[in-house]
Amino acid sequence: MTTMTPADKVERHDCPKCQAPAGSPCRTAAGKVAASYHTGRFTLVPALKAELTVKTPADRSPGKPWTATEGSLPASEPVRGAAIRLGYARCSTVGQELQSQLDLLARADCTRVFSEKISTRVKERPELDKALTLAREIRTAAPGQPVILTVVEMKRLARSAAELMTLSSTLQADGIQLELLSGPLQGVYDPNGAGAIVFAVLAVSAEVEREGIREKTLEGLETAARKGNHGGRPTVVDDDKLAVARARHAKGESVTAIAKALGVSRATLYRHLGE
Questions:
Q1: 12 Cα distance to chain centroid
Q2: Do both 127 and 59 map to the same domain?
Q3: Helix (H, G, I), strand (E, B) or coil at 227
Q4: Which long-range contacts (CB under 8 A, 24 or more apart) does 2-5 make?
Q5: Rounded CA gap, 270 and 150, in Å?
Q6: Torsion angles phi and psi, residue 198, rounded to 5
Q7: Residue 91: closest CA among 64, 118, 114, 128
Q8: Quick one: 117 and 90 in the same domain?
Q9: CA-to-CA distance for 140 and 249, rounded, in angstroms?
Q10: Which residues form the Resolvase/invertase-type recombinase catalytic domain (predicted)?
Q11: Domain count, the chain
Q12: Fewest CB atoms within 10 A around its CB: which of 25, 41, 48, 226?
């Protein structure tokens, strides 16, 4: 009895992406033999669905012109197995660290983790888009296979109700579940089932949290202003410079000459004289 290689097991199925028939390797858009099999194809094999990478053997001649061959083994029916978890980690600034999130996602048995350092104010998040694209490919190749997008906490995905509801619609349309590893709503939620209610709660929670942060920031600025501490860059025209500028301007000297002597711009000097 011969032992089947991962490539043999993969080639028992047609490829839903490049339409390579059973018994043949995947091919590229240029018609060459692909260096590795497409994810959507080998997720059909229960024993390989968590690998996310199966290379094309050397005897398939990767990079050479593709030709169809007749499959020798019938494809087995795909078996619904344990859920595939795709992790996503994000922090806002370069100074923040991602490792704590990555450690939690690793302990959650995530098959693959996407991470990026980018603010939630940025509309497009490339790594999140990659995670959702891979989840869609797996769902397309194996419709019965559960796929879960796992994050440490909800604010790693969105900070406003609008963003979260948009993401919820995406997950609902693609049949992707969401898992939160921490927080009051920790657990796995199916947006097409009872979890749809939880998504609404998450949206409200995100909006309340964002408004709370905004109010605290405004209160802090107001308190500092009452104490004489004003944020922003220090002014370039202090009281002494302003007094000199007004005296010289009253004598008929031009604003251009005064601004040059004081080392400030004409616009800045005009603004202070107007005040």
A1: 34
A2: no
A3: coil
A4: 4/73, 5/57
A5: 56
A6: -65, -35
A7: 118
A8: yes
A9: 75
A10: 84-228
A11: 3
A12: 226
Give residue-wise pLDDT tens across range 200-229.
Answer: 666 666 666 666 677 777 777 778 777 766
Q: Residue 240 has which token pair? A: 């002494």
What are the structure tokens assigned to 9, written together? 């097991």
What is the reported pTM? 0.54
What pLDDT score was predicted for residue 105?
Answer: 92
Cα separation, 263 vs 166, whole angstroms = 51
Q: What is the pLDDT of residue 149?
A: 94
Task: Name the one residue in this structure whose structure tokens are 């963003």.
Answer: 163
CA 172 vs CA 47, 92, 136, 197, 229: distances in Å: 27, 26, 11, 12, 49
Euclidean distance between CA atoms 259 and 269, whole angstroms: 6
Work out the end-to-end distance of the chain between its first and last CA atoms, rounded to an integer number of angstroms: 93
Could you tell me if residue 261 is inside a domain?
A: yes
CB 176 within 8 A of CB 149: yes
* One domain, residues 164 and 249: no
Backbone angles phi, psi at 98, to 5 degrees: -100, -15
Mean pLDDT of 73-84: 59
Residue type, 135: A
For tokens 């997720």, what's the residue? 43
Measured in residues, the chain has a length of: 275
Q: How confident is the model at residue 241 (pLDDT cuts 50, 70, 90)?
A: confident
CB 42 within 8 A of CB 48: yes
CA neighbor of 40 nearest in space, from 115, 167, 133: 133
Q: Does residue 169 share a domain with residue 101?
A: yes
- What is the secondary structure of 225-245 as a DSSP string? HHTT---SSPPSS-HHHHHHH
